[in-house]
Amino acid sequence: MSEHTSGWRLCRWDVALAVGAAVYEVRDVLLRGSGDRRYGEAWWPGIIVWAAMSALLLLRRRWPGPIAAVAIAADLASFYPAAEAVALFTVGAHTLSRRLQAGLLAASALGHTLAFWYDPDVTMPQLAPHYIIFSVTPMLLGLYVAARQRLRVSQEEQIRSMELERVLLEERARAQERREIGREMHDVVAHGVTHMVFRAGALQMAAESRQADWVAEEAVTLQSLGRGVLGELRTALGLVGGGNHGDRAPLPTAAGLPALLERTREGGVAVTLRQNHDLDSLEPVYGRTLYRIVQEALTNVSKHACGARAQVDVAYGPQSLTVRILNGPPSQPQGTARPADGSLPEGGQGLLGMRERVTLLGGTLTTGPTGDGGFRVEAIIPLTPRHQPARARPPRPGTGTEVE
Length: 404
Hints:
Layout: H1 12-32, H2 44-57, H3 64-78, H4 81-94, H5 98-118, H6 124-209, H7 213-241, H8 257-266, E1 270-275, H9 284-304, E2 309-316, E3 320-327, H10 350-360, E4 364-369, E5 375-382
Parallel strand pairs: 1-2
Antiparallel strand pairs: 2-3, 3-5, 4-5
Helix pairs in contact: 1-2, 1-4, 2-3, 3-4, 3-5, 4-6, 5-6, 6-7, 6-10, 8-9, 9-10
């Protein structure tokens, strides 16, 4: 019957509405009591009705339908409109039964009609406004309050659902990015271990030709260990990588940046590259991370800043690798510029994928809008001593300063 009465508790609003209705009726009784035919010469019968109805109004949310029916009867018997208004408002706000709401309005209309027929002092021009003000309007206000409450609850549930969906999508994106990183590591480490096995085999052959038995034994052991590790590594990382890797494109490296920028220009983004050092000595894991960051950032520029100019800065220093992608505001309506066929594939999972890659290497990623309406992506990745540039070589011709 009611949405809210199961956990009913008396609150301040119940008391305030009951007191307000009582004050209104006391004023009415004192002003009209001795001259009203319904009270006769005494005004105390009206006070008794007022006291009873005020007490019942305290329970209006606990039993909205019965309280409203009693209030309508009291209004008919002793002209108590304030209690009826409060009770009908409560029915509209706290019940879902349209039959109950319509029935109470019909009962109130019947009471007003009976008052017109049996009380010669009551006229129809008096009853119509009274019915609208004290019966129809409170019910409509209650229905409005109930609708707003349901809308608020629905919006809160939608917000909670969207937040849960966002968390799940982030978790899925992280897992997918880790699988992609695992796939890349599978190829790199497997390649290195394979070379180790081949080198150990060559060492064994060389040792055998020189009759060095102990060297041959060590080489056999090394070869056996390498093969075992290679098998276990393929099994473990194959699970992380997520299935069959037979048909897949070569893994990108920093050497692919010029081609990536060229495909981006074909998609409608004017992009330039500046680097302070030759990237050939950059380890593959850092080169792939650099490529993925630039790829994802330029993909976002193509999607959300059509026609904008973009600048890619790469600083390869002794302590860290820094890449910064800065684009200006869009100069075309969104959706105008499109990449050429297969020119700018998705780099992974957007900013979340970038952050996951950088974090796994111990770095930091900073993103955010710029003051002129553009966007900035900057990643700083610390380098271990073996990953630092061998010497401060100048960049190769055509790769230094700026590439248009």
